Each structure stands twice: as C-alpha cells, then as structure tokens.
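User: Sequence recovery, please. Input:
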C-alpha cells in the first residue's frame, strides 16, 4: 500500500528506532475498545444518571467522577464499575498482537485492562507490570518489556486514577511515574495509539508534563482519525466544520509536547500502519536456511568461503541473521558473522546474530519432528527474508534432497517472507529457485527487478563468491 508522505516518513523513522531500541508505544482507550471494553463516556453513563445528569451533554468526565464522590462520600460504585467492565475475559485485537511482536522495551498506557500484558505473554515475553510507585524501583529478572499502567490496574480499583482530585494530585502522588515518563519522552520515540486527545485521562497528564518538557524534546507521533460527514460525530456539514476546526486546534496544540499528528481516514489504517512497521522491521532480519552433506559439484572450500563471506557482508549491511545451525552450513554462517562483529565491535553487535540450534532429543510428550516443526515456525517468524543454500543430506548412504529445507521454504512462504534461493548451490535450493522463477510475481512485489537477480543466482557459469554481491543487491532493493 502506498502511504502519504508524512506517514511514509514516520514508518521509515519508527522502524529505524525499533532497530536502535528507542521506540515506544503510548496506548489509550481506543486500543482496547475494539476488544469490547467501554470508553470513558460509557463507563460514566450510570454515574451521570445517578447525579441527574446526561453523560452525552458532559465533556469533563473526570469532574463527573468527582461529583459522584462528593455526593456519596465514597467511590465504591465507580470502583465496582471498573471491576465489572475491565476484568472480564477478552481477546486481544490484531493491533495488540502486532505490538507484542515488535521489539519494544516499554509500553505506557492509561488503560486499566490487561490486554497488553496478555498479548506479550502469548508471545512468551516476560512482562514487568508497574502501576504503583513501589513497583518502579524493582525490576523483574529477564524482562522483555516494562508496561507502565500510569492510571492503575482493574484488579486494584481503589488505587485507580479516576476523579478530578486524583488528577490534581497526580504530580505529587505519582511523581516517580511522571519522572520516568519524562525521561523516556526525551530518549525514545513514542507512537500514541487510541487517543482522541480530548480524552480527560491524558489531558491532565500532558498539562503537567508540559512544565517539564524542554525545547529539545524528541519527536513523537500520534494517529488521529479525520472527521467524516455522516459518521456518528458529524451528522451535518455545520457539525463537521466545527469538529474539523477544533481538531486542527488540538493538532497544533500537540506540537507543544513534540507530538506530530498523522491523519488517517479510518481506524483500519492503524492496523495497516502497524502491519507495515512489522513487515519492514522483519525485513532487517535474514533467516539463512541451509544444509549440506556434500557441496558437489562445487569445491568444498569455495562453498564454505562463500557462506562465510555472505554472512559477513549481511552483518556489515546492518542486517540481523537468524540461523538454525544447519549441517555443513551453520559453522560458516557463525564464523562469517562473528568476523564482521569482532572487526568492528563498536559498529556491529552480537545481537545481530541469533542462533537457534535444533533440539536433538525429545522433550516431554512431544516427538522430535513435532519439536522441529515448532522450532522452525518460531525461528522463521523472527525474520522477513529467507535465503536458501544447498539442501541435501545423507540417508542410508545416499545423498538425497533435504526435506527440512523444503519445509523451511514452505513456512517462509506462508509467513510472507521474501525467499532468495541461491540456485547454483543445487539440490533443494535449485528446486526452490525453479519454483520461484516459474511465477516470480507470486513471490516478489517488484518481480521485474528481483526475478532477474534470482535467475543470476541460479547460473553456474560464474564464481560462487561473485554471487555475494547479487544477494546483497537483492537485500538492499527489498528494504528500499
């Protein structure tokens, strides 16, 4: 999909921040509403009725909560509403799932529900949840992501930030949270999702944070849906013009906080943008699939040298490598990658090499083939590009095609990976090359450019080392 210029620039820059480990998400109520949870207006409907008010006529819902406490001397009913509305079992949305797959080390949210932590847990990531000041100093061991629930958790409604008084005291009662958020806003790039920026939950926080921001604050982004005639908020042209004017004023005001607004036509665009971010990030990770009992008709030293140099060049192009330590291939992949890293340790990192050796023994009730299938699925899911080398093994004294490499090709294809077979290495890689070249439009968006290069990789009339430049050329064209 072609994006407008501002969104395209954002996606490019945000992917770069993901690669640098400096990207974060700030999630508002709009992220959870599609999962079936209520928004603030729906939450306060009954509370407003008890006060003899109409929630549809009220814009300051935080004050509405305060009025209820003032009149009743307790917030027990509001606490009960939070428990009823936000502790029910709900399925994470696709947006939650995409976010949980991204390498984001911190998430900030004003939501009370547990959908974010559920999504990360299903990705087998260790979450460190923080919703009280006492939780901030202690860190969970081996955590993958910190989730800052700055307005509390649904299972602890007494401590939730709800009323006007709660917000007025927030800069004192939750100063450590504001300090932590201020620090992250100056070091990370935030994407705000699910905020209308008329939401009272965030309004009070931003007003306090504004006093702490400097002129050199980092650029942040938010996704804002434009108003359309005849939707629920804009029944006529007069209302539409009014809401457009107000939205523009809000957009201009957000610039004070370093937040750039990206206007989207509909909420489905949020998912499309997140999918594109994930897709482009994964393209920076290359899965090298290969196994070789024999290198015939190629010379063994030439073949191993090719794998070594190819892996080194991939690291030097700032890609990451995922490898399963395939027989006859894995050692050269590791040596080539480590050579690049060790030569320039300040420029390249060992995090660019992800090794996933296959289990050799059955674990629990699962048979080895089942374990290998799960392993392949997880390993390939980390990447966006798959390179295929050789693909043969020894069975009963005979050289046969490696069925494991063919399985990895099928998994790569099913997950949308860009598949690059080095056909001249023969065996399963040659078969994959032939399959792709029969209908390259099924495998490459820019097939008229990429297919001729894949065809060159299948030719055996040039030295193998010369194929390295072709592979690197394909990789650079893919990420353009």
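Assistant: Recovered sequence (480 residues):
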């Amino acid at each position: 999909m072609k994006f407008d210029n501002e969104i395209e620039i954002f996606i490019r820059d945000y992917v770069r921040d993901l690669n640098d480990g400096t990207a974060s998400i700030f999630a508002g109520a709009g992220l959870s509403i599609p999962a079936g949870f209520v928004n603030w207006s729906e939450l306060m409907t009954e509370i407003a009725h008890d006060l003899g008010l109409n929630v549809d006529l009220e814009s300051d819902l935080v004050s509405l909560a305060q009025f209820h406490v003032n009149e009743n001397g307790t917030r027990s009913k509001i606490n009960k509403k939070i428990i009823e509305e936000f502790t029910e079992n709900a399925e994470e949305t696709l947006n939650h799932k995409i976010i949980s797959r991204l390498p984001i080390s911190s998430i900030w949210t004003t939501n009370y529900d547990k959908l974010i932590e559920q999504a990360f847990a299903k990705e087998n990531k260790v979450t460190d949840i923080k919703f009280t000041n006492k939780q901030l100093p202690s860190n969970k061991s081996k955590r993958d992501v910190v989730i800052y629930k700055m307005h509390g958790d649904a299972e602890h409604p007494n401590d939730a930030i709800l009323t006007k008084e709660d917000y007025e005291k927030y800069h004192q009662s939750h100063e450590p949270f504001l300090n932590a958020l201020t620090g992250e806003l100056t070091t990370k790039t935030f994407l705000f999702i699910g905020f209308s920026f008329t939401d009272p939950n965030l309004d009070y926080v931003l007003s306090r944070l504004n006093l702490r921001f400097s002129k050199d604050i980092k650029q942040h982004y938010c996704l804002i849906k434009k108003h359309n005639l005849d939707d629920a908020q804009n029944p006529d042209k007069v209302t539409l013009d009014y809401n457009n004017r107000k939205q523009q004023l809000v957009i201009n005001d957000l610039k004070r906080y370093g937040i750039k607004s990206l206007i989207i036509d509909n909420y489905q665009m949020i998912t499309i943008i997140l999918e594109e971010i994930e897709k482009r990030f994964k393209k920076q990770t290359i899965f090298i699939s290969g196994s070789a009992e024999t290198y015939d008709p190629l010379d063994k030293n030439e073949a191993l040298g090719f794998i070594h140099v190819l892996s080194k060049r991939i690291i030097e192009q700032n890609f990451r490598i995922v490898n399963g330590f395939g027989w006859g291939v894995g050692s050269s992949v590791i040596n080539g990658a480590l050579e690049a890293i060790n030569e320039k340790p300040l420029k390249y990192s060992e995090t660019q090499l992800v090794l996933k050796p296959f289990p050799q023994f059955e674990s629990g009730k699962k048979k080895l083939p089942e374990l290998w299938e799960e392993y392949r699925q997880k390993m390939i899911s980390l990447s966006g590009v798959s390179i295929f080398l050789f693909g043969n093994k020894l069975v009963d004294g005979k050289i046969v095609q490696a069925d494991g490499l063919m399985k990895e090709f099928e998994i790569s294809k099913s997950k949308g990976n860009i598949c690059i077979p080095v056909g001249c290495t023969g065996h399963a890689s040659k078969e994959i090359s032939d399959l792709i070249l029969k209908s390259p439009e099924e495998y490459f968006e820019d097939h008229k450019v990429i297919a001729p290069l894949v065809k060159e990789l299948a030719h055996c009339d040039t030295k193998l080392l010369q194929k390295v430049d072709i592979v690197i050329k394909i990789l650079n064209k893919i990420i353009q």
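The chain has two domains: 5-280, 284-478.
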